[in-house]
Amino acid sequence: MDFTTLTIKVLKMLSIVGGYGIGIILLTIIVRAAMWPLGVSQQRSMRTMQLLQPKMKAIQERYKSDPQKMQQKMMEFYKEHKFNPMAGCFPLLIQMPIFILLYSTLMSPQFISMAGDSQFLFIKRLDATMKTSAGVSNDGVFGVSKFDNFMTGKTAKVYFKSDLEPIDNVKIEKPNKAVEVQGTLVPGEPADFKVSLDSLNLKFSQLDQIEKAEITVTDINTKEVEKMTFERKDGLLISTIPTKEVKPAFHWDVFALLVLFMITMVMSQKAMMAMNKNVNQDPAQAAMQKSMNTFMPLMLGFTFFIIPIPAGVLLYLVSSNCFQVVQTIIINKQLELEDARKENQVSDIDLAGAKQIKEK
Question: Domain span at residue 195?
């Protein structure tokens, strides 16, 4: 079982409560909850960095003419204070594979054919990107544009000329390259598709007996899925299907979700900044941090506007940002209580020492 199939199974299990949108949100909560200890470590690391910043800057100023010596002193400084400057990056590094996996899953033919038209709140399709052409699946007519690309599903049902029983779930090698359009694709005219017999994972003796095959074909551009019957002809499997022209449409629901992602990201960053409001910061660093907090949401928003990101992935990111805000507030309260306890312990020690001196 590949990771895409496993992710679909997990989402299907979680979606029992209220559809795939709820499934994605529950997946987000599970992932972020599992990473809670790393979140604590990240915020503690950021808090420590802010407290140690003046001393770090002093080391940098003192050894600025000797970079090698400065690096050595900084490493000694980190070791002395038990501080790892990379600790804050671990949660981001762990989330990246999850983001990529969810992206590839929602863009996969498996998800599109099974739940691509799933709706959630104002989101019309969880697999829709900002600008796509969504055809109607399994209606016997392919909605296409002139330069569309196609791929098959992972398996086919194969029928034979002889008395051999049909075989279900025959593996198709390289589904993204297995099917081709014969000639030029002209929207509105019938299109001929071909699949090489060698794309089917069968014995040579079985390939020679193939009569036809039922194969699912997906238009990568429009996300439309059609189940087609391919007849054997001259060593190839051939199928003809009517087509109609579809034009790309702008999906305002996905755009609204992108704006919501940017807003929640700003909220998350403001919560992180509030964590350090009582810590004295270098004015230049504070100004740079503020600029980054403004620039990052805009940069990511523009990136996701250009790159086709499915609505379901944006829903995951929005949910993750909201979780981050709540997590930051709770952990910050915990860290403040820890600091208060440490201060009280120091005060008690000082009072005890003063009392002993007085008694002497």
Answer: 133-245
Is residue 143 domain-shared with residue 222, that is, in the same domain? Answer: yes
State the DSSP string of 234-301. Answer: TTEEEEEE-EEE---EE-HHHHHHHHHHHHHHHHHHHHHHHTTTTS---HHHHHHHHHHHHHHHHHHH
Local confidence pLDDT in tens for the 360 residues of the chain: 566 777 777 777 777 777 778 888 888 888 888 877 777 776 776 666 666 677 777 777 777 777 777 777 777 777 776 666 665 566 667 777 777 877 777 777 667 666 666 777 888 877 777 776 666 777 888 888 888 889 888 889 999 987 788 988 889 988 888 889 988 888 889 999 999 998 999 888 888 888 999 998 888 877 788 889 999 988 899 999 999 888 777 788 888 888 888 888 888 777 777 655 555 555 655 566 666 666 777 777 777 777 778 888 888 888 888 888 888 888 778 777 766 776 665 555 555 555 555 555
Please tell me whether residues 233 and 312 are part of one structural domain.
no
Q: Tell me the C-alpha distance between 201 and 197, whole Å.
A: 9
Q: 26 lies in a domain?
A: yes
User: How many distinct structural domains can be found in the chain?
Assistant: 2
**Claim: this prediction has a pTM higher than 0.70:** no
* End-to-end CA, the chain: 76
Verify that 11 and 81 share a domain, yes or no.
yes
105 within some domain: yes
Look at residue 252 and tell me if it is in a domain. Answer: no
Looking at the structure, tell me whether residues 98 and 27 fall in a common domain: yes
